[in-house]
Amino acid sequence: MIATSAQDPHAHVESARRGTTRPESAPRGAEPRLDVAGLGKSYGSGATAKEVIGDLTFSVEAGEVVCIVGPSGIGKTTLLKCLAGLHPASKGEMRIDGRTISGPPPEIALVFQDYSRSLMPWLTVEKNLLLPLRHLRLPRTELRARCEEALEAVGLTHAAGQYPWQLSGGMQQRVAIARALAYRPEILIMDEPFASVDAQTRFDLEDLCLRIRDGFGMTILVVTHDIDEAVYLADRVVVLGSRPARVLQVVDVDLPSPRDQISTRALPEFAAQRTEVLALIKRPA
Ligand SMILES: Nc1ncnc2c1ncn2[C@@H]1O[C@H](COP(=O)(O)OP(=O)(O)OP(=O)(O)O)[C@@H](O)[C@H]1O
């Protein structure tokens, strides 16, 4: 995961970055990039153990954007923490390219909703970006190039020398995303990343997310409470329900690309897919 390994994921991402269009999906029969098989997670043990995740099975192909939706407290953040190697699974398996996740994987970067707590207020934007890269032991020129590229991708080149507290909430969240990009992960995992910003900034950040997928060839997994956002962003939406949590359904989002905030959301198919996801969430357990 971000900043936890000396392994450099650069080579993989460079190859994906050569094109600026969405990468081809994985060939049939190839391992999914991310595979969750019969995952269960309980907190605590013995009589006080609490089973949060009962049995989750789904996969994410390379270059896909997959959104996870479900009621509050169902275990979405718990799932992401398991995938990021921060919590051990109680049962089942999680794999990246067929390899079992048993600790923080170097291929994953995680962006949380609460950017104000994840950025270091005493460091400039550039130094915040450099912090997770320090274990990679890269030459100074490479570090600078990564920072410049990541800040350019999120439209914050001008803010490199500023401190997080000098920036708006939306800008701080873009810094948090740039920090993940500078690490060049193969898989970007975001937990309600746009929940605390205004509607216009939210639209901009959603489009930024799609540009990152297209331009950097990343596989992206996003937890969101916003059904419209899930349908707008995703190739597939994984709907969680029941307690302990299970996958109610994986909804294929059949909308044209590239997506556009105005024309995509105006499509009758968009409304139909939103209704489909909403009906699943509202369905009595
Ligand atoms: N470290 C922990 N120890 C014990 N219980 C926990 C822990 N973390 C989360 N839980 C419990 O697990 C359940 C799922 O929490 P989680 O944060 O994963 O849900 P969520 O779907 O992300 O919720 P929300 O949508 O409200 O953010 C909750 O009942 C929560 O209280």
Automatic annotation (TrEMBL):
Identify the CDD domains for this entry. ABC_NrtD_SsuB_transporters
- Entries under Gene3D superfamilies matching the protein: P-loop containing nucleotide triphosphate hydrolases
Keyword hit for Thylakoid: no
Q: Which residues does the annotated region (Disordered) include?
A: 1-37
Q: Record keywords: Transport included?
A: yes
Name all ABC transporter domain ranges.
34-267
Q: Which SMART domains match?
A: AAA
Keyword annotations for this protein? ATP-binding, Nucleotide-binding, Transport
- MF terms (GO), sorted A to Z: ATP binding
Record's PANTHER family?
A: ALIPHATIC SULFONATES IMPORT ATP-BINDING PROTEIN SSUB, TAURINE IMPORT ATP-BINDING PROTEIN-RELATED
Q: What protein name is recorded for this chain?
A: ABC transporter ATP-binding protein
Lineage from the top down? Answer: Bacteria, Bacillati, Actinomycetota, Actinomycetes, Micrococcales
